[in-house]
What does this fold into?
Amino acid sequence: MDQRRAETLLAEERRRLEALLLHSTDVGIVEREGANEQGDIADSAEPFTSEEENNAIAASLRIRLAAVERAESRLAAGTYGLSVRSGTPIPDERLEADPAAELTVEEVETDRR
It folds into this structure.
């Protein structure tokens, strides 16, 4: 994959993740504020469950954002598109689907076994 295409894919993924992270933070704030309002509360644990879900989503987004940052570092270092484990080239099709891919599909499947 050429550098310009990789830069574009990573920038788009970064923007998408940052927007989702911002949205999940905003949703959490609104829900916490709503939990403090008076009114009918059917389940007093619901705000806590929702907050935990938002925290889990935000944590997952931060992990994914860190993967994008590592991919950007590999791009700058000239090693983007190579498996971080074996140095084997990662096919362009995989990088198009997941621009932050660190391993080949075969390596991922081996890890799952």
In short: The mean pLDDT is 86.
